[in-house]
Amino acid sequence: MLSEKHATLVIKILSLLLIAALSFFVIAAKLPESKFVADSVVSVEDSSATVMKFSAATLSTSLAISALPDDFATPLADSLADMNIYFVAILAVLFLEKILIQYGIKAAFTILIPLSCFMWILFVATRKDLLRGLAARLCILGLAAAFVIPCSTHITNIVASDLNAYVHETIQETEDGAGKLNEAMDSGTEDKTIFEKLSDLFQTAIHDVSDLMLHFQNTIRRCMNSIAILILTNCLMPLLTVLVLKWLLGEIFHITIPMPPIRRRRRTEPKPDSASDPEPVAAGEKRL
């Protein structure tokens, strides 16, 4: 018969082995196919499509503006073309998020969580604090890799729905502006100036260069606001989710990552050297 101490040890080890097996064989196969993760992938793909559509709209508008006579709107065209640097950066973040969703969950529950369980088994057997710290770190890293990006996409869809509507309106307005510019340039009526054609197409008063510049300056302003929204929703929201989860773990549940103790060397007193110490002198004798 096992003693109570050994029975408790065996139960802990078997429980950790069961958790590792469930993580590897069940959760790693079922969780990526769940609706929660599938919706996150769809959300990231929709965001990528929005960014690419936005990039195409700004490029087409830039080309249309640069085709205007006298090159008076070339700075505006250059400003719109330069926005694609931000779109490339946002797309890179979105592709990274998609990779983390598709492969991070499997890596977390097939590698990190089982490895954390085995580290904890070694800690139970050896009682070394270093192994417990490694097990806790691997577990938290696995859970973060599995849930941070999906949670951030769902939070973004709930919180930033109005902001995303503003982005889509800006894209539509930019595409319409490019189409009307191209239509005005291709129009064969010679009895009207380019500004009169644009005034008819935009259904607003565009009498000279300043009016047209003012219209596209407003378009550029809306585009910059939309880029800021895309950076907030697609780049900063995952980071904020990580910080919030860290705060929840540390403050609400009081989960801390133990650190191995630092052993300090004791300062030992130097032993007296018998060869260098003078011999004791008896009372009444003189030292030579």
Describe the structure.
- With 288 residues, the chain is mainly alpha-helical.
- The chain is 77% helix and 0% strand.
- It has helices spanning 4-30, 35-66, 74-82, 84-126, 129-159, 161-186, 194-202, 209-252.
- The radius of gyration is 34 Å and the shape is rod-shaped.
- The model has no long low-confidence stretch (mean pLDDT 78).
Index terms:
8 helices; rod-shaped; 77% helix; mainly alpha; 288 residues
Question: In a nutshell, what does this entry contain?
Answer:
The protein is mostly helical. Helix content is 77%, strand content 0%. The N and C termini lie far apart (76 Å).
Sketch the major β-sheet.
Answer: none
Q: What class would the helix/strand composition place it in? A: mainly alpha
| Share in helix | over 70%
> Terminal Cα separation, in Å?
76 Å
Mass-distribution shape: rod-shaped
Proportion of residues in extended strands:
under 5%
Mean pLDDT rating: 78
Number of strands: 0
Low-confidence stretches: none
Tell me the count of domains: 1
What is the rounded Rg?
34 Å
**What is the count of helical runs?**
8
Topology (elements, then pairings):
Elements: H1 4-30, H2 35-66, H3 74-82, H4 84-126, H5 129-159, H6 161-186, H7 194-202, H8 209-252
Helix pairs in contact: 1-4, 2-3, 2-4, 2-5, 2-6, 4-5, 4-8, 5-8, 6-7, 6-8
